[in-house]
Design a protein that fits this description.
single chain, alpha+beta, 5-stranded antiparallel sheet, 4 helices, 25% helix, 19% strand
Length: 144
Amino acid sequence: MREMRQQIATQNKRQKEWSYLGMEDFLLHHGRFYNPQPLPPDVPKMTPKMCFENAFLLAFLRPQFRYVEGLAMGIIPVHHAWLIDDNDNVIDPTWSATEYGMGGAYFGMTFPVQFVKKNRHRHCLSVLDNWKTGYRLYKQPYKP
């Protein structure tokens, strides 16, 4: 990701005044790895390809889980959302840790559920890739 950040920095002129060059740069500053694990039996498997909605809904309904957004390893690294428990173990209601090699590694950062609620849009459910706000998350230093 550091190499990708450098490539973005040299190619992207319009973001010179921003605090972060984009999602990868933001994650390098604030992200960390989380521990993959099988989905606990008390957590339902949810709708495929709806990770942002799935993670938000469960974080909203179950306050013991925290919302995380970042990159997860599928066949290739994919922008993804999941939850973590109190021990920072991944709770991923969208992917099964064993299906097709999905969920082998998770790198992201937690966002308070109220922050997610405030910063998502009905046409853009992601916090990190929210084009509807003009990527305002990257324009100033992040303070939770």
